[in-house]
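Journal club prep, shared notes

We agreed each person brings one worked example of a sequence with its structure written out as tokens. Mine is Probable malate:quinone oxidoreductase. I'm keeping it raw so we can talk through how to read the token line rather than staring at a rendered picture. Sequence first:
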Amino acid sequence: MTTKSVDVLLVGAGAMSTTLGVMLKQLDPSLKISMVERLDHVAHESTDGMNNAGTGHAAYCELNYTPQMQDGSINATKAFAINASFEVSLQFWSYLVEQGALPEPTQFINPVPHQSFVWGESNVEFLRKRFETLSVTPQFADMEYSEDHDTLKEWMPLVMENRDPNEKVAATRVRYGSDVNFGSLARNMVNFLDSQDDFELLLSRTVKDLKKNSDKGWTVTLKNDQTGEKEVYNSRFVFLGAGGGALPLLQKSDIPEGEGYGGFPVSGQWLVCKKPEIVQKHLAKVYGTAPIGAPPMSVPHLDTRVINGEQALLFGPFAGFTTKFLKKGSIFDMPKSINLGNLAPMLSVGMNNMDLTKYLISEVMQSHSARVDALRNFFPDAKDEDWELSFAGQRVQIIKKDENGKGKLEFGTEVISSEDGSLAALLGASPGASTAVATMISIVEKCFAEELASPEWQDKIHAMIPSYGQDLTQDAELLNRVRSHNLKVLGLDTVKKIQAQAETNSLQDQDTDTAA
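Then the structure, token by token:
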């Protein structure tokens, strides 16, 4: 048995843990950090490229972030917050690129316009109101709107191809949206961490136990799944960033702040097309409206994706249900997570969300043809044989007690931390990795408050995040300045790069066909 002492123990090697690890190493290079991962590779669960939408969530196209109220008005509060948080992520990534800690940006982020598309009179009216609400603000001033078929053919030719010219449709567009390969981003962050002193990556390790020490710290017992050896780590701070696996670990910690939390797992599936003659007709992430009864994460969208230099189209997600908390987890994950503290909230949620249950059952029972039928709302000429099914990662939605002691289902993300700041856990799903930087900053503020107050840490965090401590939703001059810088550094101010990549892929495909 081995025993080690570290300053920080990060559980999980996905977007969240890698972001926090790099941030802490930038703030204090002398910190001893160990990262624990259950799998034998980094970022192969929810963070992996095909296991998520790859959308840089900035609320440009995601209609579920701007619900319509009973009086007909648009509630844009969440959209403003998510947009500001994504700008914080872009600042951090830009800083790391400039410092050489991240590679050339096209290895993890590419420019893809973000568009919303709706059909039908009521949906068109909603999108028009949404545009009017958002576009008058500095954050969304560059948003475009149109109901003209010819204009939309230029924006999204695949979507408008052979569409009824009399159909009532509308769309919005923000040209500098992004496609993010969060798997590549996380792996490059780990590569950087691996090059630093006092960092250790522990693959194929399972956390067996967490116990609070008397002197503000934790004893974490690991099992090496390759050798069977027991390993013990004493750490001043522990972060549980294990995606769907964070809830069982939070329960192991027994901190009072985690009492009553439960999880509702939702799986996902994509239709994928890699045919060059189809892929090259679509350069956008086009989001629509969610079906009645669907969870917000199931908003349908037709996306350009760039994964490991290869361009493809994805449509979905199609939701499903499993009791696994992780894609490579166990069917006993959900049953094992039920205890006396969360039983009542989970039963309450189950009873009050029958529409969601029925929706998930209907999604699971769909045939391939039925899924392609749904795609035809976005691509009228879609053919069954051009698309194949791919399984996405697991998302575990938060269940917790409401103000009446019953249960409520949350579709966002939430940080739970111990009162003394020695442990923090991240639960939930969307917008997830897109806002990882802002979320990790909140953990640093809570759990490293004394260090963050020092002049050294203040200087460094302002260097990483120029807008730190200021409100991007209120300061238009600051927003425009940091946005302009980020777009330039990350290559998001033009779509020419991705178009060139598409042409290169096409030539490579032609060469392969000729050789064959």
